[in-house]
Each structure stands twice: as C-alpha cells, then as structure tokens.
Amino acid sequence: MDLPSNLLPDEASPEWLNKGDNAWQLTAATLVGLQSIPGLVILYGSMVKKKWAINSAFMAFYAFAAVLVCWAGWGYRMSFGEKLAFFIGTPAVALDEKFLLGKPFLGSFPTATMVFFQGVFACITLILIGGSLLGRMNFRAWVLFVPLWLTFSYTISAFSIWCPDGWLAKLGIIDFSGGYVIHLSAGVAGFTAAWWVGPRSEKDREKFPPNNIILMLAGAGLLWMGWSGFNGGGPFVASVDASLAVLNTHVCTATSILTWLLLDTLFFGKPSIIGAIQGMITGLVCITPAAGVVQGWAAMLMGTLSGSIPWYTMMVLHKKVKLLREVDDPMAIFHTHAIAGSLGGILTGFFSVPKLCRFFYMVTVWEKYIGLAYGLENGQTTAGFRQMGIQLAGIVFVICLNIVSTSLICWFIGLMVPLRSSDDELQVGDDAIHGEEAFALWGEGERFENYKHNSVYDAEELSYVNSRPLVDDV
Q: In this structure, is residue 10 part of a structural domain?
C-alpha cells in the first residue's frame, strides 16, 4: 500500500511514537468496543422478555455505529479539541490524515488511536442509556436521540472533565476512566429519558423474564473482561499505573459480586444470577473513577460498598420511593450506574493516593489530587477536603447537565416523532417493529408463523427486583 504523498517512509514511525503504547491503546480500545459489540448486545438481547430480544440488541448495535460516525464527524473535537467555551470544544471533523497521524493532546501514539479509543467510550455511554429505555421506546426516536445526546450532552461532560482545557479538569477533579463522564451521565440521562418516554406496557412490567440466563452470563463476562481495556487504557501508556488499574478493577468487582450474593442469600435465602450480574456491574462502575489512583485494599473496600449500597437502593429504597417506582428502568441503570458512579466518585476523593495521582496526571503540584484520607494523615486537611468538594461538585454538575440536556432532547424529538412505541408495537414487540423474531427458526429452517396473531407467550415470572419481597428491616 502506498503511503500518503506527504508522508515519507521514515515519518511512518516518528521519534515520538511509542509502539508499545500504541499497541496497548489499540488493544484497550478494542476491548472496550467488545464490551458493547457483542457484550451489551448479548446482555440486553438475553436479559429481556423474548418478544423484545431483537429490538433491545438492535438498539445497542445501532448506537455503536451511529456514535462512531458522529464522533469522527464532530464529537471528538467538541470533546477534546480547541476550546470554544469553558465547557465545550469547537466542532470540527477528525478525518483528515494530517490531523489523525499527528500526536494527540496526551500519549505517544497517533491521534487516530486516541479518536478510536475515546470513540468506543462514547459508544458504550449511549448503549448504557438505552438500557433504561428497553421494551417501549420508539426506534425512530432512538435513531434521533443517539446523535443529539452525544452532541449536546456527552461532549460537554467529556470536555469539562477530561480535556485539559475543561473547567473541572483545571480544578483537579479525579475521574480516572469515566465514573462521571460515562456511568453517572448514563445513569442520570437514562433515568430522565425513561421518565419522558414512559413505562413499558402493564403486562411487561408485571412479567419481564430474561429469555436466556446462560447467554446473559456470556454478555456479562464480555463486559467484565473488557473492563481491562476500559480502565487499563486510562493512563494512555503501557505503564505500572495501567497494571494497577487492571488489577484493582477485577479485585473490586469480585468483592462486589460476593457482597451482593451474600446479601441476597441472607435476606432472600437464595443467591441470584441476575443479582450477581448487578453486583458485577456496580463493582466495575464504582472502581472506574479510581482504578489507577487507589491501593488494592481500598479497591476491596470500594467493592464491599459497591456491592451493598446499590443493593440497598435497588432492593429496599426502590420499592419505598415513589419516583423510583414510577420511572420504568428495566435494566436498573439508575442504581448500577448513577448510584454506583456517584459512590465511586466520592470514594475516589477519599482514597486517592497523591503519589499515584501524580503518576496518572504527570504533575508535581502538591495542592491537587490528594484524597481526604491522605490529607488527614499527612496534615494536608484543607487539600483533602478541597478534593472531596471538587468530586462532589462534579457529581452535581453531571446530574444537572444530564437532567436538563436529556429533557430538552426528548422534548425536541417528541415534536417530530412519538417517543413511545404504539400500543400495537408494545403488545407484539420485535415482529411489529422490525418484522423479525429472535426465536423464529423451527425444525429444519422452517420459520415459525407470525406470532402477531397468536398468543404464544406465557412468560415465566422471573423478574429479579419485582419478585423479591420488601426488606423492611434493613
């Protein structure tokens, strides 16, 4: 293959390029991509009632494609480009070879690598939001929602928190790999959008069993193992900090799963596979803002808290708080991402180690990036409380941003197309919306007759949250 005319052979591997870092970053990006395609596609497609399997999986599949196109077109430069305002970058394409083959704002690899790595992060954020909208959102509305939310919400939080010119980044907020930008944003945006779209049909809310629990575990496993790239790629370098981030990620997650299962067993008598998956997700989310800046013992403590506090909000508060009961969130994205993401951000402000923070941020400033625990220990109490205040300010900012932006986007889309599927589509599901069924082949390739005219779905009641009794004594 010929090189671009302006690129000489010796410039294909410039002095600033670190081949090891580049290889790891591309690997990490691919692992993050696999979390969505096929990870969340499989998880969503198998965790819902069988009449919604195709629609749920396809919402994730579409979002991945749409985000990548918008990201290269304008999203990346709005998130990491030249500052337009204190909270947003200037829209511009990220497709020109002169731009893509140069060095990015961080890292010793081409900008093309950074665009792809950050792009798969943006993809998974939209797919997580989709988890709050399964089983009833008009697919045409989802087609519009994805690029609009990416443009007018995700880019703002990404620039403010991750871009060196962002206002929260300058204050010194710690978000190692997306606890705020991805998980808190997705949890709040998903909950807000779910309120605007409205609930599933009454029948689906009463009985919404997963159609394949074993396949659920396969999707969950891809999500868990893919997190090595999610957090391990955060430092933008194949470093000791990346190694620590990967280990902390898995230690925290394992602890969270065991904690969740213990609570399920103590209060309900049986460990639940769906509960284990929820505990896995809360552990992964909680450690994300802190992965490479806390010690292993702190990661285990965070896992204990991420396996218990979201468990309490999901299993106890959810049935007591009217708003949580009324807003239909079938994948519990609010609890597993908004609650766990906020928890992770707060615990990061408490447990972050100053030395590890300086490894990650490559700074020598002692007034920033000091966890409260270490500030109290080292006589830097003011700096520790300051860090905690910045972490809390970031949570408030992300919550307010996503409530407002998501509400405006849903309102705008509602002017053009209905946000919610029609009553006929809600009753029939995949066949009415896509003309396809997930379990349509019988015998030797014979297609099962269109079930639209047959009541063939007598679903077993296996819903995790709704089938559990209210825990009044917790």
A: no
pLDDT over 50 (residue 474): no
Q: Are 429 and 52 in contact (CB under 8 A)?
A: yes
93 within a domain of the structure (yes/no): yes
Contacts of 278 (CB under 8 A, 6+ apart): 260, 310, 311, 314, 332, 335, 336, 464
User: Which tens digit of pLDDT belongs to each residue from 242-273?
Assistant: 999 999 999 999 999 999 999 999 999 999 99
Neighbours of 466 (CB within 10 A): 13
310 phi/psi in degrees, rounded to 5:
-60, -30
Q: Do residues 324 and 125 lie in contact, with contact meaning Cβ atoms separated by under 8 Å?
A: no
- Mean pLDDT over each residue of the chain, to the nearest integer: 90
**To which residue do tokens 């007598």 refer?**
458
Residue 437 lies in a domain: no
CA distances from 38 to 133, 171, 212, 449 (A): 19, 37, 15, 28
Q: pLDDT (tens digit, 9 = 90+) per residue, 223-242?
A: 999 999 999 999 999 999 99
Domain count, the chain: 1
CATH of residue 38's domain is 1.10.3430.10
CB 282 within 8 A of CB 340: yes
Share of the chain above pLDDT 90, in %: 81
Q: Using the 8-state DSSP alphabet, how is residue 458 labeled?
A: -
Bridge-based pairing state of the strands 88-89 and 441-442: unpaired
285 pLDDT more than 70: yes
In a domain, 6, yes or no: no
